[in-house]
Amino acid sequence: MSPFLSDLIPDILCRLPVKTLIRFRCVAKPWRSLIDDPHFAKLHLEHSSRTGANVKLFLDNCIECDDKAYAVDFDSLDNLVRFPRPFVAEITKYRSRIIGSCNGLLAVYHRDSGIALWNPTTGKRRYLPPLDEDVADDHDALPGYYYDKNTVLGFGYDEISNDYKVVKMLKSKTQTPFKVMVYSLKSDSWKGIGDCPYDFPTNYNDGAYVNNALHWVGDEIGEFHGGQVIFALDLSTEKYYDVPEGDRSIKVKECGGDCLENFGYMNAGVLGGCLCVSRDYSTCPVKDHINVWVMKEYGVKESWTELLYLSRDEWLTNIFHSRAVGYSKNGDKVLFDEGGGQQPAWFDLEDETGETLSIEGAPQLVSTVIYVESLVSV
Q1: In the chain, is it the N or the C terminus that has fewer CB atoms within a 10 Å radius of its CB?
Q2: 181-209: burial string, b at 16+ Cβ within 10 Å, e else
Q3: What is the helix (H) or strand (E) element at residue 94, kind and residue range?
Q4: Within-domain flag for 4
Q5: Taking a C-beta distance cutoff of 8 angstroms, is the pair 325, 309 a contact?
Q6: Which intervals hold domain F-box (predicted)?
Q7: 134-146 residue pLDDT tens
Q8: Considering the domain boundaries, does residue 101 fall inside one?
């Protein structure tokens, strides 16, 4: 084969779906070596990110005892696929849930069995080692089958060290601040870092990965006001910092009540690559509602923009557990879900109406996560 053709092959192959590339590994040893090369996996991922190709919507069955997971093409919501989950589901036992998505990898948490990093496209998975016994024994875990606000989690990619990291914050039996443990895929080990400087007001608070950092909402330690602070943990320096919030006295979509500054932040999320937060106005004297704000330029206080308004009486799911999942292909709708207890729903940004999400052949009550098919290995 001429050098010219050899140089073209990676550029051609990086445009193909992962499933096709897996089959092509059998064509010849040089192709197998190329497709298995981490540099090619990065090239393929960069092409997908640049073109918007290979984007999937993961459907996590949170209600039924189901050993299968489901995914569809995000743009068309068809081509349903099923694959076995990293953790087995058992009746009356804890079920696993997705705590983060990054570069084609999903972090899966199971309260009894631990955490796994999983590439659902290739089927490869890695089960994280357990925490040291003294750390685990000091964890003041709350009873419950799904979320536990005494266990706060996050997953992301440290671009500086080229490492995937899982963060696990644990309410301690012996001290007030949350103890914080960080897992590194490179070292396949956990280590402790500085205690979390804030408390967590809600159960629905998995970290939002933006700008090489994980983001949460919190309160000053010992003060519970429904989430008054947006803060982050830099995955490179492993230091905490506050994120500037928008003007608390501004609200574009008025409800008619005197509640401009009387809100807490429910959760942090990601929309279109931007940090977003939900402002909780459950104490509004006129109408319980939330407002979703997006930080269009990271770190710039003035870039916070109100995106939409949802009222408890008019929206299709529990608004106070709802989180924004992503924009539709045309950018005219936002997908919301509330953790799997109700059907996810689309919010139309133009006419401000809702429509429930229903995928033929998949469970109806699901939690949803966007991911991109990739060759990234664990």
Answers
A1: N
A2: bbbbbeeeebeeeebbbbbbbbbbbbbbb
A3: none
A4: yes
A5: no
A6: 7-40
A7: 998 888 887 665 6
A8: no
